[in-house]
Design a protein that fits this description.
75 residues; 37% helix; 3 helices
């Protein structure tokens, strides 16, 4: 998705999640993700709930098995 969430990407994400639905942004702990997530929050939160899940340092979402990734959503 690049360094920022574009208006077009935000519109696509919002169209896939019903009003009142939730968008979960899952990233590694790399500080570079912060800029992307901030742009997602600005673009999507006016119409959808957005939650940022930061994985432990050195871990990327693609490193986790489905069950381990699902466990990150328990809050």
């Amino acid at each position: 998705m690049a360094a920022e969430c574009s208006d077009e990407q935000a519109a696509i994400i919002s169209s896939l999640v019903e009003r009142g639905g939730r968008v979960w942004v899952v990233t590694g702990a790399n500080p570079a993700w912060g800029r992307f997530v901030e742009s997602c929050l600005r673009a999507i939160t006016p119409t959808r709930f957005v939650r940022w899940v930061r994985l432990p340092k050195g871990t990327e979402p693609t490193d986790l098995a489905a069950d381990d990734l699902r466990a990150q959503f328990d809050c």
